[in-house]
Design the sequence.
């Protein structure tokens, strides 16, 4: 059970950390558009804020669930603050995942170390933040399509413990902005998150 | 050899044969149980049983360190896999999720019997609707990632609430999927042996098995520096035994060698040397045989220390051999020393009898050993040794040394005043200090090094074992009764947790609810048609897919009509170890233990529990109970030592028929004990029960000296030889125990130092205080 739980959290992390990429996607203007130049853009990161609207298509429900809220990040730190339909805060801080949820706003703390799959993934994400493509490729087979103005990053887990839960992660963006993060789970459940970077 | 001598000799040989027959069929035990105290209260009894046999005593904690994290994690998995299939271990855990996944399948299957929320009305339409709405909210939150997996089968969320309850508390960190210390330098495991902690041979085999598994794992890996360390009560018991054994063999063989050397120097005859050891050897054999007959087995410690306890019987043959003048028949010497020797043995027996009735099986064995051994040794000295003594044997040394000793003893009176001052000073100082400093910490007797103890504490902390100080102990006539009472106590504790009186508690009923409770939970599940109806009402207007909850209906019915869980159902899971550590049968009583966490208001807990029968529900403070237990242990030994001392004094009074002489015989020994204790205290030593046993030995040895001083011997030559005998006896005792004092085991050290010092001082004070005013020439020999 715990692994399943961890896989779910892993999913959330993919979403959260994928969002992170947008923030680092600064204003690099590379002449040649390639995975390595995208990574280069992602390598130079800064603090930032964004708004999101997320649609969850779950097999257990007849209708999708819609969530909205804000995102904020700083080096080594990321916060997803859901405002609708129910307030909730998720913070990834170093090796810890903190979730404040429920009517009592109870804070739950989760050591990423307790969940090797997530942990490996987080390391992969950190590698992305620093443009370390080699480490990222230990977890994912990565394909980049499109141009600098309109690109799509397709990521398929290459490790068994990740692919048991996640079928595909697709991130679309352009001009230094991430627009849509879509995660397809192994069980067919799908989550589509539209991101709009706040003017800063 | 005369006819009667021949009969004596044959009887002796037959006796030895019989003893060897008994000894060769004896069972030797090594478990430390015999030396654990009996306990006056049920709570303390439980504590002792737990020390002896409880899950805690069977837990071995293992650390693997000295290489990269990944390597250590791989080794941890390998060792765990090997030990998990080993029948010597009932439970092995390295924190890996495989273990948890196996357990969680069990929890999921039995969630409706294990969840405390399942009560009458739990599955009504209204309650179900509330649960479904909560689930809907969960789906939109991050927790939905957790709950969605179980939504269809478990809409009321029983499984997750059980898991949350079981998983509360500190757990070690995880790295690479297994437990690690916070620094990531050690992989941590725990293994629970099937054998109790006091079965040292079994513990030794278990530790060897762990090492073997580790060595195999290391051989199959590329590691170079990884090392395994195991700690725990059983591991320490093995180490203690090995340490004591090695130490005891080393120092006692040195002591025996030194004594043999001294005696050969005095006797100048191998045959005589052999004869000196004949009584003590026969006595030791008889001691072992007597203990096996009386107790059905003999303990390793009895065997080790018994020889020490009857060491004074070497003195008997020394008296016989060094006491004979040239050309004198040994019978003549015997008739002179026999009454004194006999009384000396009787006093030693009186002292040992106190051990015999002490109520500790181990000490009773020691008492029995020493009584049988001393009696037989004396008998052999009296009847067998003279037969084997070379004709016209005498000690050359006597002619030269005896007169010197005679003069020295006659002048010893000069030291009366200074000696009195020293003794009085020591006594005053002890009184001022409020008696001798006692050490009630059992651990101080532990020969395990402080660094090993520190390592043990460190690993324990890293494994997150909660430091429980307060327990509720529940008694019941059977398992069901104990569990039911534990559940009732649990309801009281729940309200206290709610009020903040304590942070939480553990209960065996969490993992194995009573049969009655499980039945009640089954009754709370409606029958299939009713449950379907309730669910369809509850689902009205909610966006859940049709048929999603079919699994719930089916599984709830399975739970309703299943047999309640028993202890054997838990066997394959980690819950078994949890239950066994909290629920146990001791003799005919079942106990449930509920450890309390972070008790803020102990008084409130006691007040809340006062509505229960105090015979059934006890609140126990572990620290104070343990302290009281050890203190009681020591007090009891002290009491028996005092009883032994009183018995000795009464015996002497009866035998000497004179208060004055009795006082004269006892005082030098008392003075020697006072000075010895004061010296120990001044040197910073704290007294333990082993010092008390040593004091009994001093009384036995010392009374032999003072009884000889008490006798007025008309012949100056005889007196000189008596002093020579005493000097040789004393020197051999001091030498022997002096070597034992060099041991590194605290127990041996305590006995060695106390006895050698006490014996020396007894002789000294005897010489100083017991020599009459005038030369004793005019007095007649006084029969004892």
Sequence:
């Amino acid at each position: 059970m715990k692994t399943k739980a961890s896989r779910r959290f892993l999913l959330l992390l993919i979403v959260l950390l994928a969002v992170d990429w947008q923030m680092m996607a600064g204003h690099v203007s590379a002449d040649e558009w390639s995975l390595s130049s995208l990574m280069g853009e992602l390598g130079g990161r800064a603090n930032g804020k964004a708004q999101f609207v997320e649609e969850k298509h779950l097999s257990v429900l007849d209708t999708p669930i819609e969530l909205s809220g804000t995102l904020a990040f700083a080096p080594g730190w990321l916060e997803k603050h859901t405002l609708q339909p129910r307030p909730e805060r998720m913070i990834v801080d170093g090796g810890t995942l903190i979730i404040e949820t429920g009517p009592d706003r109870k804070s739950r703390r989760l050591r990423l170390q307790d969940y090797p799959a997530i942990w490996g993934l987080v390391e992969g994400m950190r590698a992305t933040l620093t443009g370390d493509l080699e480490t990222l490729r230990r977890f994912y087979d990565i394909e980049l399509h499109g141009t600098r103005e309109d690109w799509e990053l397709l990521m398929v887990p290459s490790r068994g413990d990740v692919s048991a839960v996640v079928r595909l992660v697709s991130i679309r963006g352009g001009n230094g902005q991430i627009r849509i993060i879509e995660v397809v789970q192994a069980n067919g459940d799908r989550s589509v998150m539209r991101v709009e970077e706040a003017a800063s | 050899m005369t006819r009667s001598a021949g009969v004596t000799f044959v009887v002796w040989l037959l006796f030895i044969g019989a003893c060897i027959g008994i000894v060769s069929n004896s069972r030797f035990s090594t478990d430390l149980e015999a030396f654990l105290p009996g306990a006056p209260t049920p709570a303390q009894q439980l504590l002792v049983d737990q020390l002896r046999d409880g899950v805690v005593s069977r837990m071995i904690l293992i650390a693997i360190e000295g290489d990269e994290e990944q390597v250590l994690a791989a080794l941890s998995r390998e060792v765990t896999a090997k030990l998990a299939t080993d029948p010597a271990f009932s439970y092995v855990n390295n924190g890996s999720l495989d273990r948890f996944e196996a357990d969680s399948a069990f929890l999921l299957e039995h969630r409706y019997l294990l969840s405390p929320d399942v009560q009458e009305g739990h599955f009504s339409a209204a309650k179900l609707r509330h649960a479904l709405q909560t689930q809907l909210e969960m789906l939109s939150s991050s927790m939905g990632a957790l709950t969605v997996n179980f939504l269809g089968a478990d809409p009321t969320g029983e499984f997750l609430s059980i898991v949350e309850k079981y998983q509360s508390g500190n757990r070690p960190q995880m790295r690479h999927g297994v437990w690690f210390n916070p620094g990531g330098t050690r992989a941590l495991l725990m293994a629970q042996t099937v054998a109790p902690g006091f079965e040292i041979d079994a513990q030794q085999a278990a530790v060897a098995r762990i090492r073997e598994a580790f060595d195999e794992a290391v051989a199959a890996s590329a590691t170079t520096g990884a090392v395994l360390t195991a700690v725990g009560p059983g591991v320490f018991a093995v180490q203690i035994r090995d340490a004591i054994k090695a130490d005891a063999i080393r120092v006692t063989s040195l002591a025996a060698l030194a004594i043999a050397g001294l005696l050969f120097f005095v006797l100048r005859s191998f045959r005589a040397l052999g004869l000196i050891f004949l009584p003590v050897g026969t006595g030791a054999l008889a001691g072992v045989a007597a203990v096996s007959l009386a107790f059905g087995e003999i303990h390793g410690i009895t065997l080790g220390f018994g020889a020490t306890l009857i060491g004074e019987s070497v003195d008997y043959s020394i008296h016989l051999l060094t006491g004979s003048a040239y050309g004198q028949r040994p019978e003549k010497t015997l008739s002179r020393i026999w009454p004194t020797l006999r009384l000396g043995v009787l006093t030693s027996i009186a002292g040992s009898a106190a051990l015999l009735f002490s109520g500790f099986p181990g000490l009773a064995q020691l008492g029995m050993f020493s009584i049988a051994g001393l009696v037989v040794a004396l008998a052999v000295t009296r009847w067998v040794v003279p037969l084997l003594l070379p004709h016209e044997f005498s000690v050359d040394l006597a002619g030269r040394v005896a007169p010197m000793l005679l003069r020295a003893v006659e002048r010893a009176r000069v030291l009366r005043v200074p000696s009195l001052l020293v003794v009085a000073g020591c006594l005053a100082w002890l009184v001022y200090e409020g008696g001798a400093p006692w050490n009630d910490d059992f651990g101080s007797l532990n020969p395990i090094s402080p660094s090993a103890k520190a390592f043990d504490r460190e690993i324990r902390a890293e494994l997150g074992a909660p430091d429980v100080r307060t327990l509720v102990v529940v008694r019941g006539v059977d398992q069901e009764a104990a569990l039911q009472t534990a559940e009732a106590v649990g309801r009281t504790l729940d309200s206290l947790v709610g009020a903040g009186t304590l942070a939480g508690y553990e209960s065996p009923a969490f993992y194995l609810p009573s049969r009655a409770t499980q039945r009640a939970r089954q009754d709370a599940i409606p029958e299939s048609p009713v449950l379907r109806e309730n669910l369809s009402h509850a689902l009205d207007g909610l966006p859940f897919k049709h048929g999603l909850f079919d699994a719930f209906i089916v599984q709830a019915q399975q739970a309703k009509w299943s047999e309640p869980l028993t202890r054997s159902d838990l066997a394959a899971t980690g819950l078994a170890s949890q239950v066994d550590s909290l629920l146990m049968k001791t003799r005919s009583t079942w106990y449930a233990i509920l450890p309390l966490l972070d008790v803020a208001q102990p008084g409130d807990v006691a007040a809340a529990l006062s509505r229960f029968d105090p015979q059934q529900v006890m609140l126990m403070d572990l620290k104070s109970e343990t302290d009281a237990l050890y203190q009681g242990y020591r007090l009891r030994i002290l009491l028996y030592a005092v009883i032994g001392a009183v018995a000795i004094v009464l015996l002497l009074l009866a035998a000497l028929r004179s208060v004055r002489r009795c006082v004269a015989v006892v005082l030098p020994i008392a003075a020697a004990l006072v000075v010895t204790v004061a010296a120990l205290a001044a040197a910073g030593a704290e007294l333990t029960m082993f010092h008390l046993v040593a004091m009994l030995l001093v009384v036995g040895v010392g009374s032999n000296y003072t009884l000889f001083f008490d006798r007025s011997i008309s012949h100056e030559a005889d007196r000189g030889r008596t002093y020579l005998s005493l000097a040789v006896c004393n020197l051999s005792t001091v030498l022997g125990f002096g070597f034992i004092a060099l041991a590194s085991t605290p127990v041996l050290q305590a006995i060695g130092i106390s006895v050698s010092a006490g014996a020396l001082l007894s002789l000294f004070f005897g010489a100083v205080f017991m020599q009459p005013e005038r030369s004793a020439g005019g007095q007649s020999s006084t029969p004892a």
User: Anything to note?
Assistant: Confidence is low (pLDDT under 50) at residues 774-784 of chain B.
